[in-house]
Design brief:
Layout: H1 7-20, H2 26-43
Helix pairs in contact: 1-2
Length: about 45
């Protein structure tokens, strides 16, 4: 899921996607970690 996706989509979908992919390639984990950072910045 791209980090530049609609923030409302991130709000509802980010965490389930992050945990579902948490055991995949390190680069993908890094990507989702950056999305988590973005999500926290937008919705904190």
């Amino acid at each position: 899921m791209p980090c530049n996706e609609n923030p409302e989509a991130l709000k509802f979908n980010l965490y389930s996607v992050f945990y579902r992919d948490s055991r995949r390639h390190v680069l993908q984990k890094k990507h989702f970690s950056e999305c988590v950072w973005l999500h926290n910045k937008v919705f904190s």
